[in-house]
């Protein structure tokens, strides 16, 4: 068997390979040779083979078969063997392999070896890949070595101790006594590693931290003054060749000490006080011409920010950061921006001073710097500077890379929401964002924007005009088109009538508006959602516009056979509106009410059904009365949309009868209702239950209506009221009661009003009744839906009040309903 | 904490690699390729710190060789930058005018 080739030759051969395949071939051949050599148990060349194996491992080829060989090398007596063996162990083995435990004994012996280099090797390996079992076994040895006088060994032992502590935190106590003398060394290597050890201890355990901070008997053993003294020596001492890096002595040690000081001083007044002087000294004395100096200054600034320093020091730190920002070197600017981001929460005013420089950084070429500058700019926006900042940010949005656009757009929206000086400005800003970065905008921006627009009532005309102009030019940006079509649908009449105070009114005819909406529908660029918006908008315009109703009818009927199921469904239903339910159309398509402002904690709070948001809470708040029926019916219209049914029950802003029900919540006995005059519009209210009936059943409620028995709640004087129950599948504390009122007398009952009250632990919501006339002889009924929220699952009780006109006289009755079946509320 | 220390040349060949956290072999090559791609795409006057996944890369170019160190957020980036330079200076002293070949051929010395 010829002698295996040397590592150098292997490397040379591999370098001659021209393709990846050739290289792989060579390596496989060599691996085979190595494997057979291992099998032969050849001692002399083992080290060479393992070295080659390590090289191949570095290139990325599997080398696990060499692990056992490494162990054998470690066990041999030759130093070169040991060296390669330990190196191999460090690279190839880790605690996932079981083989590593075999090393423990070898390491133990080597830790007690006579040659310091061997000891050093063992310490290195243990510190690199020791598992917790190994660490436990060998911690005693390491601790002994920590106390030797040999500085070469001491520093390695300190690093090994760091690793041991990381693996087995309980052993920290063991190393404590040894640390006492560590800082008294002259050797920088030992100093450095001991500072690392102390840092690790302090970071891991708050007890250790307290221990190190407190004043001890001998003043010389206080940690903070010791560190301060060392640092002082470093700065003050003259040129020392072995520690010098570009004119500063041992910057690495300085940085480490500063970090340890930071940990010691955090949240601790005494230590912070002791450090103030030295920090000021470092900050002023360090040279900033070289990168090294800047590195130290950076660490100093971080430390000043973290500890409880006095304000003068903090101002000094921020000024240093400001100087960094003006520096030409990109690295330094990046570092400054990062630290400013960290401190902007606490020292807001100081950072504001540098605002202009930060904004300039937005224009920098470097990606990392731009990102940091953008984040920092958003943090700095406040009420005073919002206009200027927004201008800069919008300009940035125009020119930045796509990966930033989404974040920038959402940031701008948030800032605009918080600090908008006027509604018009707000709307302008949002429109600008939509036109420049429309396709990167987040999905919930559209409903938010719509909500904002409805809330700014006086701006409707202006908004719709601007949106119209924007879409006229270009309808490829989906969010923009969605918002625009929604607005045009809602406020198209304002657009056509040309009343706009803020801007020059433009002359638009109804046909032109319809042209635009139709082109959106037809265009290939429109997403399915956008088309839905456009179709709904066209439909709404049928009530707002006067002369083009036929055209609208035509459009809607065309889409009744569209391939897109969503569009088809909508079109078919709108068609039905034109034909069968034409009397309902105006009421259904009335203006949307002002929407509740829901906190934008997350998109899940807002239920989005075709862009019309509804608050996802069951609480009832009374908005203007005439609009409830329309909006409530609108919600049901959206229920027709089918595909966006959400698990949350879409509760409309409720009608006045329900608000009266809300007032009733507190009045159990006294049913002094203010409901009667308000219920006058009730007769004109379209009939939601009909629409629901005409549809394929929605899977909102489980159909165990049969499962829960219905009850007769009231039966007197010919008036019978039945309750039927449904429980919601998705929300078990909601019960839906449908009441049916029938009249068995010979005369009709007119102006029938049903009111109900429930105990305080419940919440009640009354939807509008189907009509207010109960025809005689049981020939017809009034239906009304009641929703009861019963979070505590208490027994359902209800008090009802009925008012109606019968035989020419007004009748009123109170009754209590107690016979609710248990399934309705459990 | 330093996660890894790499020396990769412009063609993407790794000359030295030391990982201080466990990363599987296949992932290592992928990681190295991606990292070098990021570094190569930077121009000379861009800053040396790149944010990559959830940690930072500090890189420095010496002729045709890139030294890349992966660190997490607790480390001082500028200190690591200096460390890279210090390391290269040490190599320089050891090999007297180090070149890429020296780095590739003496892996064991480099590691230790």
Q: Tell me the total number of β-strands of chain A.
A: 12
| Unreliable stretches covering 5 or more consecutive residues of chain B | none
Q: Could you report the average pLDDT of chain B, rounded to the nearest whole number?
A: 74
Kindly report how far apart the N and C termini of chain B lie.
19 Å
Structural class computed from helices and strand pairing of chain B: alpha+beta
Gyration radius of chain B (Cα, Å) is 13 Å
Largest interface, counted with CB-CB under 8 A? A-B, 47 and 31 residues
Total beta-strand segments of chain B:
5
Work out the oligomeric state of the chains in this entry: heterodimer
Assign a percent range to the helix content of chain A: 55-70%
Q: In the CATH hierarchy, what is the class of chain B?
A: Alpha Beta
Profile the largest sheet of chain A.
5 strands, antiparallel
Largest sheet of chain B: 5 strands, antiparallel
In the CATH hierarchy, the architecture of chain B is: 2-Layer Sandwich
Count of helix runs of chain A: 36
As a percent range, the share of strand residues of chain B is: 25-35%
What's the number of domains of chain B? 1
Helix content of chain B: 40-55%
């Amino acid at each position: 068997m010829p002698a295996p080739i040397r590592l150098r030759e292997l490397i040379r051969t591999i370098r001659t390979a021209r393709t990846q395949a050739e290289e792989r071939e060579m390596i496989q051949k060599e691996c085979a040779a190595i494997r057979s050599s291992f099998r032969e148990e050849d001692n002399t060349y083992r080290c060479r083979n393992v070295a080659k194996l390590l090289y191949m491992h570095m290139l990325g080829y599997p080398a696990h078969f060499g692990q056992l060989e490494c162990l054998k090398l470690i066990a041999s007596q030759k130093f070169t063997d040991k060296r390669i063996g330990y190196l191999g162990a460090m690279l190839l083995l880790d605690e996932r392999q079981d083989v590593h435990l075999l090393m423990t004994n070898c390491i133990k012996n080597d830790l007690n070896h006579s040659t310091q280099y061997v000891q050093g090797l063992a310490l290195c390996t243990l510190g690199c890949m020791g598992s917790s079992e190994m660490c436990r076994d060998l911690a005693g040895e390491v601790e002994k070595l920590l106390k030797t006088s040999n500085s070469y060994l001491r520093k390695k032992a300190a690093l090994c101790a760091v690793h041991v502590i990381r693996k087995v935190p309980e052993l920290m106590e063991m190393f404590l006594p040894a640390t006492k003398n560590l800082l008294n060394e002259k050797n920088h290597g030992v100093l450095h590693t001991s500072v690392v050890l102390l840092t690790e201890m302090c970071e891991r355990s708050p007890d250790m931290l307290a221990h190190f901070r407190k004043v001890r008997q001998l003043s010389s053993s206080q940690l903070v003054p010791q560190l301060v003294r060392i640092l002082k020596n470093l700065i003050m001492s003259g040129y020392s060749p072995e520690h010098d890096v570009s004119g500063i002595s041992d910057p690495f040690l300085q940085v480490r000490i500063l970090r340890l000081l930071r940990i010691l001083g955090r949240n601790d007044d005494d230590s912070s006080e002791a450090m103030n002087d030295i920090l000021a000294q470092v900050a002023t004395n360090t040279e900033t011409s070289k990168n090294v100096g800047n590195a130290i200054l950076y660490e100093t600034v971080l430390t000043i920010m973290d500890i409880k320093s006095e304000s003068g020091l903090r101002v000094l730190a921020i000024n240093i950061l400001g100087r960094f920002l003006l520096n030409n070197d990109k690295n330094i600017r990046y570092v400054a921006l990062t630290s400013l981001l960290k401190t902007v929460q606490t020292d807001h005013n100081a950072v504001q001073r540098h605002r202009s420089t930060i904004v300039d950084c937005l224009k920098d070429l470097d990606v990392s710097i731009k990102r940091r500058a953008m984040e920092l700019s958003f943090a700095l926006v406040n009420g005073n500077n919002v206009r200027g900042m927004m201008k800069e940010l919008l300009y940035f949005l125009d020119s930045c890379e796509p990966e930033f656009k989404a974040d920038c757009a959402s940031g701008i929206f948030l800032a605009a929401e918080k600090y908008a000086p006027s509604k018009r400005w707000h709307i302008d800003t949002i429109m600008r964002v939509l036109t420049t970065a429309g396709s990167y905008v987040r999905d919930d921006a559209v409903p938010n924007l719509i909500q904002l627009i409805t809330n700014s009532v006086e701006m409707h005309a202006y908004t719709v005009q601007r949106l119209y102009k924007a879409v006229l030019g270009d309808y490829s940006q989906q969010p923009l088109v969605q918002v625009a079509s929604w607005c045009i649908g809602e406020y198209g009449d304002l657009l056509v009538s040309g009343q706009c105070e803020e801007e020059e009114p433009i002359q638009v005819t109804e046909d032109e508006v319809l042209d635009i909406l139709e082109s959106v529908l037809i265009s290939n660029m429109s997403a399915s959602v956008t088309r839905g918006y456009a179709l709904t908008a066209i439909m709404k315009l049928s009530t707002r516009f006067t002369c083009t109703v036929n055209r609208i009818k035509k459009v809607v009927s065309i889409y009744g056979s569209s391939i897109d199921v969503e569009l088809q469904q909508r079109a078919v239903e709108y068609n039905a509106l034109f034909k069968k339910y034409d009397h309902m159309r105006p009421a259904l398509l009335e203006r949307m009410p002002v929407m509740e402002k829901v906190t934008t904690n997350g998109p899940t709070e807002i239920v989005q059904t075709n862009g019309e948001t509804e608050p996802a809470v069951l609480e009832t708040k009374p908005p203007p009365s005439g609009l409830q029926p329309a909006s409530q019916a609108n919600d049901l219209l959206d229920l027709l949309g089918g595909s966006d049914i959400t698990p949350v029950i879409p509760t409309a802003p409720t009608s006045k009868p329900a608000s009266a029900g809300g007032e009733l919540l507190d009045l159990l006995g006294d049913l002094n209702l203010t409901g009667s005059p308000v219920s006058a519009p009730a007769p004109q209210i379209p009939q939601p239950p009909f629409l629901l009936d005409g549809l394929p059943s929605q899977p909102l409620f489980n159909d165990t209506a049969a499962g829960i028995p219905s009850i007769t709640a009231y039966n007197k004087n010919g008036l019978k009221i039945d309750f039927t129950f449904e429980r919601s599948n998705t929300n078990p504390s909601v019960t839906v009661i449908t009441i049916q009122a029938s009249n068995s007398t010979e005369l009709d009952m007119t102006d029938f009003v049903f009111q109900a009250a429930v105990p305080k632990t419940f919440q009640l919501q009354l939807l509008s009744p189907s009509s207010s006339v109960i025809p005689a002889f049981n020939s017809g009924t009034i239906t009304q839906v009641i929703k009861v929220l019963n979070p505590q699952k208490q027994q359902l009780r209800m008090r009802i009040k009925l008012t109606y006109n019968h035989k020419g006289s007004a009748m009123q009755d109170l009754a209590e309903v107690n016979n609710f079946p248990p399934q309705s509320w459990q | 904490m330093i996660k890894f220390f790499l020396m990769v040349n412009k063609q993407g060949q790794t000359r030295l690699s030391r990982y201080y956290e466990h990363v599987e072999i296949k992932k290592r090559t992928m990681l190295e390729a991606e990292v070098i791609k990021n570094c190569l795409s930077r121009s000379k006057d861009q800053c040396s710190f790149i944010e990559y996944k959830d940690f930072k890369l500090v890189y420095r170019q010496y002729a045709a060789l890139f030294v890349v160190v992966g660190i997490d957020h607790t480390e001082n980036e500028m200190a690591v930058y200096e460390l890279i330079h210090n390391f290269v200076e040490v190599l320089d002293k050891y090999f007297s005018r180090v070149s890429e070949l020296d780095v590739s051929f003496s892996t064991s010395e480099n590691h230790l």
